[in-house]
Amino acid sequence: MNEEIKLYRNAKKTRKLLLYASAISILVAIMLLYGIGTFDGIFKIKLSVASGAILLIMLALIFKMLASIRDKSPLIHIDTNGFSGRTTPVAKAFGRLDWQDVTDAQLQKVGGDTLVAITIDNAAKYEGRASKFLWKMAYDEQNSKLNIMYSASEIEINAEELYKLFLKYWKK
Question: How far apart are CA 32 and CA 12, in angstroms?
Answer without folding.
Answer: 30
